[in-house]
Specification:
17 strands, alpha+beta, 5-stranded mixed β-barrel, single chain, OB fold (Dihydrolipoamide Acetyltransferase, E2P), 24% helix, globular, 3 domains, 306 residues
């Protein structure tokens, strides 16, 4: 059976393109609408079709207006409505064939080609000259790629992220933490970089044998700020990022915004603010309940006090 997983894209019967945003895709695929056909759009695929890119809120409005049956916490597209499934690892050879920057990245990381891919506009064949690179590595091979990225920057094989680029990323994310706090956390993650003056993300996705069912929304208990020790950060670069914590009320913190992936390591003391939800016998703190997560954050106090 063909599986759709996080970072894949799908095309529906109307040619709309969605980024797969979940792992539980057995009956309906959890995704976010990203591109729609538009005769005046500025993105052109290899067949000459024009598209326009949609931000988060406009995509939800369009789904609500045109395809309300897909509405959920994220969009849910039935398999019967899927015309095409685009997989980053399968399309990588074609992408490296037309983009020398992606080819350099693929050759840099010492992991099997089946463990890496490229998502986003490059996967859809809708990249523009200014497009960033969304490079995916699967499972434990991601950590090998991350260590390689760190060494490549330290040995000047790749250029470090510039101050100007950090500012651009910060302005795009608009997190509820200061620029200095943002950069201090980001610089140690090694999940972003620059190649030939192009920004890229190094994105983690679970291997097929590690996929679990996604979490449904729990009973909302309200906003909460906590301080706690991280006891497990194995999946802190996943989506959602998962942090197990030692705390009297909260057992787990989930972050649904890329800003706070990899934000803290095991053994560190963190301060986190989000929305508390009840899940069975546990209370979880959810960070990223909105696109820009205003009023929600994760900070490593251990890092900031070093």
């Amino acid at each position: 059976m063909i599986q759709a997983r996080l970072r894949d894209f799908i095309e529906d019967r109307d040619g709309w393109l969605y980024a797969v945003s979940a792992y539980d895709n057995t009956e309906r695929i959890g995704c976010i609408l990203r591109y729609v056909p538009d005769s005046t759009g500025d993105r052109i695929d290899k067949a000459g079709r024009r598209f326009r890119k949609l931000d988060f809120e406009p995509s939800y409005r369009l789904i609500e207006q045109e395809k309300p049956e897909y509405l959920d916490i994220i969009h849910r597209v039935p398999w019967d409505d899927v015309k095409q499934l685009l997989k980053p690892e399968e399309e990588l050879p074609a992408i490296t064939g037309r983009d020398p920057r992606v080819k350099k990245l693929a050759e840099l990381f010492p992991v099997p080609r089946s463990s890496m891919g490229c998502t986003g506009s490059l996967l859809c064949g809708l990249e523009a000259g200014s497009s960033d690179i969304d490079f995916v590595v699967y499972g434990n091979d991601w950590f090998i790629a991350r260590d390689t990225l760190k060494r490549a920057v330290e040995h000047r094989i790749l250029e470090p992220v510039s101050g100007e680029l950090w500012q651009r990323i910060y302005d795009k994310r608009r997190p509820d933490i200061s620029l200095d706090e943002f950069i201090r956390h980001e610089e140690r993650k090694w999940n972003r970089g620059q190649i030939d003056d192009t920004y890229f993300d190094l994105l983690y996705t679970r291997s097929y044998d590690d996929i679990v069912q996604a979490t449904t929304r729990g009973d909302i208990l309200g906003p909460l700020t906590i301080e706690a020790e991280v006891t497990d950060a194995v999946y802190s670069f996943d989506n959602p990022a998962v942090y197990r914590v030692d705390h009297s009320e909260i057992s787990c913190i989930l972050s649904f915004t890329h800003t706070y992936s990899g934000q803290a390591e095991k053994g560190e003391i963190i301060e986190a603010r989000g929305i508390c939800e009840r899940h069975g016998e546990e209370n979880w703190l959810i960070v990223g309940t909105t696109r820009e997560a205003h009023g929600e954050y994760i900070l490593s106090k251990t890092l900031l006090h070093q």
